[in-house]
Design goal:
By secondary structure, this protein is an alpha/beta fold. It is built from 12 helices and 9 strands. The strands form 2 sheets. Strands 3-4-5-6-7-8-9 form a 7-stranded mixed sheet, sandwiched between helices. A hairpin with a 6-residue loop joins strand 1 and strand 2.
């Protein structure tokens, strides 16, 4: 035994056998600072297991949890003109778009889908706050119109999950025009007698709150979500007064009559199923009639012991 055997060889072996450890295995909770394992956090629908803080959830992950067995079909949205104002701040608008698409893996800030929730077929739209703050541009306006038209065509309810920082400044007045366009789309549902349910998530602010996010037949919000037009800091600086604790949060707005319900994310699907079936004049959901967590093919596979029995 010598220093080569005792030191050099183990050192060489450790260098060649070292595994790369992914950097995204842990997520820090914004509210309590707890470090959460990614798999445990994902299974809990991005809700902190320590303080129950509701973190951001992408539209695709939200739809996977919402629709029966995670099965849904995307609704195509017309693509608007790219960079109509040739806007540039620190970066060119097309560069910002490409960066957002690369980081999120999505084409834009809203996803529209159709599928079944508790045996009730619906059209759903959800905003992605990680895509340029979920800002409302021409694409988002087109997405809401496409969702409303699909709902009217198929005679289905529309459920919208809002999460936005307001209008997209890179599109200027064109982004503000999406407020009346979306309002007209919601009126199409009204005239067709179809339910429109809004689920407000953290944060929903600006022109989104001033238009389609507050026009639902039923207004639901996730716990402690910031819902406002102008933020608390702006209001405090304007009126020069200290605002009440929890001002413009879900629970505050519920107490003051602006919301119908505040529902935990894990209970959201059951809540929506009950409301949708009631508004569409269907009988209450029966637990045994709801889809199984696994597909039917997996359910009928015989046990291993039975398969081996001669």
């Amino acid at each position: 035994m010598n220093w080569i055997t005792n030191y050099v060889r183990p050192r060489i072996n450790s260098l060649f056998s070292r595994r790369e450890v992914p950097e995204n295995l842990w997520t820090k909770c914004d509210e309590c600072g707890s470090m959460l394992f990614h798999r445990e956090l994902s299974e809990n629908l991005n809700v902190c297991t320590n303080c129950d803080h509701h973190m951001a959830l992408t539209p695709r992950d939200r739809f996977t949890a919402l629709f029966d067995n995670g099965v849904f079909s995307e609704v195509q949205v017309p693509v608007p003109v790219a960079d109509p104002l040739h806007f540039r701040d620190q970066k060119k608008y097309p560069d910002r778009m490409r960066a957002a698409q690369r980081n999120t893996g999505e084409a834009e800030a809203m996803l529209v889908a159709e599928g079944e929730v508790g045996r009730t077929r619906i059209v759903a739209a959800a905003q992605d706050f990680s895509f340029m703050g979920g800002s409302m541009g021409m694409f988002v306006g087109n997405a809401i119109i496409a969702a409303a038209e699909r709902a009217v065509e198929r005679k289905l309810p529309l459920v919208l999950f809002s999460a936005a920082g307001g209008a997209r400044m890179q599109e200027g007045i064109l982004s503000l025009m999406q407020m009346p366009r979306a309002t007209v789309a919601i009126q199409m549902l009204r005239e067709a007698g179809l339910p429109y349910i809004v689920v407000l998530t953290h944060p929903t602010t600006g022109g989104v709150t001033a238009s389609y996010a507050m026009l639902g037949d039923v207004q639901i919000a996730e716990p402690n979500a910031l819902i406002c037009f102008a933020g608390p800091r702006v209001i405090e600086q304007t009126i020069r007064e200290t605002l009440p604790e929890g001002f413009q949060r879900s629970e505050y707005l519920l107490d003051h009559g602006m919301l119908d319900r505040v529902t935990h994310r894990k209970d959201m699907k059951d809540e929506l199923v009950s409301i949708l079936r009631m508004l569409t004049h269907q009988p209450p959901p029966v637990r045994g009639d709801l889809p199984a967590p696994e597909d039917e093919a997996a359910a009928i596979v015989p046990p291993k012991d039975a398969a081996e029995t001669p």
